[in-house]
Structure formats: structure tokens, C-alpha cells
Design a protein that fits this description.
Number of strands: 0
Oligomer: single chain
CATH architecture of the domain at 57-146: Alpha Horseshoe
Distance between the termini: 164 Å
């Protein structure tokens, strides 16, 4: 006896949404794609627009903050203002330029340890283009101010050898002359200054700077841990003040 065959009719799966009556046959593949992927494509597109808009907004906010930071850095002048500016904005590109100014302010205030640290930080973080040489020479000045003469001399001489004709070279050579003097090598210091004087003849500012250093070297006497910066300050303080004008004769 043959197995009984099922006579139940198979009910077809209903279509969730009928195909539009007037849809051209050639559009059927596109319609099928839209039904399958269209909504996901729209969602993806919206997500891309939202992300791109967020990135643009973030860039605008960031640029606005950097612009504000740059204005604050430019306004900073005093030592305290520069310290605050570097603490707040030292991580941005312009912050390192402010750090270079801070190092110079420390040096001018005879805070040589702080100046050295600031110059080192400036070089380690990448000094602004064109300013790395200033930081390098400033660092040598700070070492000289600290009395670390061998290190300062090595730094000056390395720059002098590596950068012939550099606009900072005269300052470097004057630094070498100062250290020679403090090491008891006045003759070598004077010889170096004579060469520098010949190179800078006709440049009044440098002629005056060299002449002033020559006078300091002539008067300098080695003492315990005393730099030529201190000697120059002391010499300036000993210059007598101009005599006060004589009082006018009393009227008869």
C-alpha cells in the first residue's frame, strides 16, 4: 500500500508590501535594492553627516581656544604673567614661544636654575622654528650664570663651530671671552674680542658691547663664585651719579 500523500494546500507567504502597479520592469532591481538596503544606507549617510558636523564643530572650538590662548600669551609680559601663561597654555604650539620668553625673564631676574630648566623644556618640547638656536645659546648663558663654566664653554664653543656667520655668533664669542677671563685666561679673552671688534667695525651697537666687555675684563679680579654678569652689575652700580646743580644765588 502506497504511503498516503498529503493533500493539504501549501499557503504562500504573503508579500509584506505589494510592488507598485505602475513601476517599470527595469526599475524592479532598484526597487528590490531599496527595500533591502535603502533604509540602512540613509541611516549610514545621516551618521556620517552627524560625525562630520561634530568634527567640524570640534575643530572650530579648538581653533577658537587656540586663538584665545595666543592672545593671552602675547599679552603676558611680567615674570608672573609668563609663568601663568606657560602653566595654562604650555602644551599648545605658541606655548613654547612663551616658554622661551619665560626663560629669558628668569635669566634677567638672575634665576639661573629656573632659566636653565625653562630652556631645557623649550628644547625638549621642540622650540619654534628659528628659535631653537636662541634656546641653545640661552641655555649656555644660564650655565654660565650658574658658574658651571666648563659646561657653558663647551656649549658656546659647539655653537660657534657649528654655526659660522650666525647672527648669534658674536654673543657666543663674547660668552667664550667671559669664561676665558673667569678661568684666568685674560690674554685669550682680549685676543678673541680684538678679532670680534675687527669683524664688527662700523656696527655701533656691537662696537659698544665689545668695548664694554673689554672694560669689564680689564677690571675683573677672580673672586669666589662671581660671574661677569655680577661684575657688570656691580660696575654699573659704582658709576657716580651726576652732581646736583648748584643752588641759585639768593636774591638781594
Amino acid at each position: 500500500m502506497s504511503p498516503e500523500k498529503s493533500t493539504a494546500a501549501v499557503t504562500p507567504t504573503p508579500i509584506s508590501q505589494a510592488i507598485p502597479k505602475n513601476l517599470p520592469i527595469e526599475m524592479l532591481p532598484l526597487y528590490d535594492w531599496w527595500k533591502t538596503n535603502g533604509m540602512q544606507t540613509v541611516i549610514t549617510f545621516i551618521a556620517v553627516v552627524v560625525v562630520a558636523g561634530g568634527a567640524f564643530a570640534f575643530k572650530q572650538v579648538r581653533e577658537s581656544k587656540i586663538s584665545g590662548a595666543n592672545r593671552e600669551l602675547l599679552k603676558a609680559n611680567s615674570l608672573e604673567e609668563l609663568e601663568t601663561a606657560v602653566a595654562q597654555y604650555g602644551s599648545i604650539k605658541a606655548g613654547n614661544a612663551a616658554r622661551l620668553r619665560l626663560a629669558k625673564a628668569y635669566f634677567d631676574a638672575s634665576k639661573y636654575d629656573e632659566a636653565l630648566s625653562a630652556y631645557d623644556a623649550c628644547l625638549n618640547k621642540g622650540a619654534p622654528k628659528g628659535f631653537d638656536d636662541i634656546a641653545t645659546v640661552g641655555r649656555a648663558h644660564a650655565l654660565e650664570g650658574l658658574g658651571r663654566l666648563d659646561e657653558a664653554l663647551a656649549a658656546y664653543q659647539a655653537f660657534d663651530k657649528a654655526s659660522p656667520g650666525h647672527y648669534l655668533q658674536p654673543q657666543v664669542q663674547m660668552g667664550i671671552a667671559r669664561i676665558y677671563t673667569m678661568q684666568g685666561k685674560k690674554a685669550e679673552a682680549k685676543k678673541l674680542l680684538e678679532t670680534l671688534k675687527a669683524q664688527k667695525t662700523g656696527t655701533p651697537a656691537w662696537e659698544m658691547a665689545v668695548a664694554n666687555l673689554e672694560g669689564i675684563i680689564d677690571r675683573y679680579e677672580p673672586r669666589a663664585a662671581r660671574s661677569l654678569f655680577d661684575a657688570a652689575d656691580a660696575a654699573a652700580k659704582t658709576v657716580p651719579a651726576p652732581a646736583a646743580p648748584a643752588p641759585a644765588p639768593a636774591k638781594k
